[in-house]
Amino acid sequence: xxxxxxxxxxxxxxxxxxxxxxxxxxxxxxxxxxxxxxxxxxxxxxxxxxxxxxxxxxxxxxxxxxxxxxxxxxxxxxxxxxxxxxxxxxxxxxxxxxxxxxxxxxxxxxxxxxxxxxxxxxxxxxxxxxxxxxxxxxxxxxxxxxxxxxxxxxxxxxxxxxxxxxxxxxxx
Length: 172
Fold this sequence. Notes:
Blueprint: H1 21-28, H2 47-50, E1 59-60, E2 66-68, H3 78-88, E3 103-107, E4 122-126, H4 127-134, E5 138-141, E6 147-150, E7 156-157
């Protein structure tokens, strides 16, 4: 059992001073102790390295390229931008004709509202429409993969040819 030195886990620096690999076995299984470097290890040394760390998930595509960085990356990596461009075949705001090169990847919800950096949470918007989204307009990806745009008053902007992206395709 993991027990804090001070008796109470309160966020103070001594909360994990007595942690050893054996303490983690009930949580992660006996396979943890089969790792030669961890068996009998005192895990106090890595603690300073982890004090500013974050636990996150990273979802990989079939080629091993990360497609979901959670909230560890605010800026969108080039490979994720390419994946968004391929998926949406251009910008997603209804009626937008801006060249794809003029667009940025926007998170839905936005980063400031807790949105993460992932393919599922990304939309390609030009600067003008990205600003409009930050001022009350809304883009929404439907379960079929098509994008819809909503005005601040809640009315939907009718879709036009080529403005909503392709339907969602799934593997058979």
